[in-house]
Amino acid sequence: MTTSKNTAHWTLEALAQAGVKHIVFSPGSRNAPLIIAAEALGTFEMMVLGDERSAAFHALGRSQVTEAPVAICCTSGSALANYYPAVLEAYYAHVPLIVLSADRPEERINKGEGQTCVQREFYEPHVAASVQLHEEDCYEQVQAALQYALQAMHFEMRPIHLNMAFDEPLYEQGEAPKSIQLNSPDDIVTKYGLPMSPNFPLLEGAESVAVIAGQLSPKDSQAVRAVLEAEVNWTLFADPMSGVLDHRSAVRLEEIMHHRPKAIISIGGQWINKKPKQYLRSLGIDHHIHLDRFQCWDVLDAEVEHLRVGPDYLVNFAKASQFIQAPKKNTIVPDLPWSDGAAFQMIVESLGTDTVLHLGNSSIARYFNYFPNPVRLYGNRGVSGIDGSLSTAIGAALADPGCAHAVILGDQSFLYDHNGLYAPELPQNLRIYVLNNGVGGIFDWLSGTAKTGSEARRVFANAQDVDFAGLSAAFGVVYKEVSTKEALEQALGEVNGIELVNCKTNQNFNLKVFKMLQDGIS
């Protein structure tokens, strides 16, 4: 027996054919046909998370580490709006999320029905495809719509939205209808066609070429490492989130400001630091080639040429003579006193190379510039600020139980997403480290905030004094609080399943220590 809504049953069958193994549900009534169909098929791991915003980021983390599409399913009304932050991140980070949102029939929209809003094409333009399905749609209509949406997801590696209108009754069951059959995406020619011939005509005659890496997935980081191991004749200018900054042939991206390249080859996603972007734009560079299977960042406003190849193609230029070489500096890291910087250094240096590290945004990701480590590195840098970092790490750790996971967050990021702990199951292979200075510390790194008034600075700081111990106890998480290097060292040596280690620091002192870091490494 399955749901009497054939559209729901066919949709779940199609997801199974598309390789979906996990569906994260949030409770509701309108999505009951989808829940019933998923249970009847018996091919999915079905999870339930009550907070839709957290549930979507949880699914994002699962998709990142498994490299497979993950579905999220909610009821009608404002529920799907809570998915939007994760949909945005998935769109820009190329993560294949599948949003299943239940809806009322179109004739009941905007007629005073409870928990109802306009849901058709809700996530445009931030999905690869939007599909509207009705319970009365015939087999051929559903088949064509799902084929289109899943094909778009496959080729763009971006989220898709399947909005499904159901009328009452919602819980009726019956015999399964004729099974739906979709073509394999591999049987269909991609709309992009074949990759362009990578002969790099724009580089002919360029006196100096710089190679830059933005954020990379762990898989692409390993591909780049393999290229660098080929003993390249050039230097890779690397963002900390590239995951390769520790390599002997890589230097911090900021080092490019000591050179005047005539052309740029870039790989990966966004760059954290604004200054290199602004500097390169000021040079008026007009030769920019970006290597990426999916997306292209015209970060230099220079008529970028997009070649749809992976970063491993750089090996063809291993011995290029006109590419910039920059010596790897012998960095001297001072013996840091207790601070955010010292805590970050100790945590990262304690990790094994097989550890999966998740970094929050703002100052957290920037600290990795000074203490890079060859770990599997993840961070929500597609478009997120502090949103969803904890939920993403929890989802990833649950989907990857054979590896140790660690997440480092600022106090603001942790508090904003602490509902990630509101789950029936938490990963025992995850340690949560919070650098808790009591304020939004990143704003103290920005010179402009010092020129503002006291009220404005109070808003930027968003000071908090939350009882982290009580919060941890509420979710059944082991809690440790440290305020010295000795205490953190002891905590790092003790592993007791999922833990929250609250590193209490002083923000005024953090700024002095950060200046020490800059002076010692610059």
What does this structure look like?
- The structure is a single chain.
- This protein has helices at residues 6-17, 32-41, 52-66, 84-93, 139-156, 218-228, 274-282, 340-349, 363-367, 389-399, 411-416, 454-461, 468-474, 485-492, 507-521; strands at 2-3, 22-25, 45-48, 70-74, 97-103, 129-134, 160-165, 173-174, 209-213, 236-238, 250-252, 263-267, 287-291, 305-307, 356-359, 376-378, 405-410, 430-436, 478-482, 499-504.
- The chain is of the alpha/beta class.
- α1 (6-17) crosses α2 and α3 (52-66) packs across α10.
- The chain is globular, with a radius of gyration of 24 Å.
- The model is unreliable at 187-198 (pLDDT under 50).
Strand order of the largest sheet: 3-2-4-5-7-6
Q: What is the total tally of β strands?
A: 20
Strand fraction equals: 15-25%
The rounded distance between the terminal residues' Cα atoms is 67 Å
Which whole number gives the mean pLDDT? Answer: 90
Largest sheet: 6 strands, parallel
Q: How many domains make up the coordinates?
A: 3
Which stretches are low in confidence, meaning pLDDT under 50 for 5 or more residues running?
187-198
Structural class per helix/strand content? alpha/beta
* Gyration radius from CA atoms, angstroms: 24 Å
Overall morphology? globular
CATH superfamily of the largest domain: Thiamin diphosphate (ThDP)-binding fold, Pyr/PP domains
Q: How many helical elements?
A: 15
- By CATH, the architecture of the largest domain is named 3-Layer(aba) Sandwich
- What would CATH call the class of the largest domain? Alpha Beta
Helix content: 25-40%
CATH topology of the largest domain: Rossmann fold
